[in-house]
Design goal:
The complex is a heterodimer of chains A (85) and B (84). Chain A is an all-alpha fold and 85 residues long. Helices cover 80% and strands 0% of the residues of chain A. Chain A is built from 3 helices and no strands. Chain B has helices at residues 5-39, 49-83. The longest helix of chain B has 35 residues, at 5-39. The relative contact order of chain B is 0.08. Chain A: Belongs to the small Tim family.
Chain lengths: 85, 84
């Protein structure tokens, strides 16, 4: 992506904007892949004919609780760093 | 010098295609890893039919899971934006 971008004329605003949006979308996709791996391990036992509703709830909650955890840890880590300084 | 719009459209289309391919490759590679782990416990001399069946179901569930998680994440992003 980044070498692709450096080939573009720097004054082409429309194209620059397009690439920025596409990069953002790629980041979101990358994040979904990561969540899917983490939550798959947490929520899926033996693969069956369909996802049952308990598994669906587990997957949905897993995403939200992972984000909550990430926010909590980031905040607390920042506090710890502040106290040390 | 700005490019003409045909050339620009071509580049945009190419970029979109490349991103879509990269995305599919990522899904394929992660799905292979996860389903191998779930379905092939003791690798034998070939994939037996129960392993193959498990792999098929695993693939379908992995993609279901991807869709579900993508929706949950999208909703979370929306909620976070509203709370700002």
């Amino acid at each position: 992506m980044s070498d692709f971008e450096s080939d573009l004329p720097s004054n082409d605003r429309e194209l620059q904007e397009f690439m920025m949006i596409e990069q953002q979308k790629a980041k979101v996709h990358e994040q979904i892949h990561e969540f899917n791996e983490i939550c798959w391990e947490k929520c899926i036992g033996k693969p069956s004919n369909k996802l049952d509703s308990a598994t669906e709830t587990c997957l949905t909650n897993c995403v939200d609780r992972f984000i909550d955890t990430s926010i909590l840890i980031t905040q607390r880590f920042a506090q710890i760093l502040q106290k040390r300084n | 010098m700005a490019m003409d719009s045909a050339k620009r459209g071509e580049i945009m289309e190419l970029a979109k295609q490349q991103i879509a391919v990269a995305n599919a490759q990522e899904l394929l590679s992660k799905m292979t890893q996860r389903c191998f782990k779930k379905c092939v416990n003791k690798p034998g001399s070939s994939l037996d039919s129960s392993e193959q069946k498990c792999i098929s179901m695993c693939m379908d569930r992995f993609m279901d899971s991807w869709d579900l998680i993508s929706r949950a994440y999208g909703q979370r992003l929306q909620r976070e934006q509203q709370n700002q």
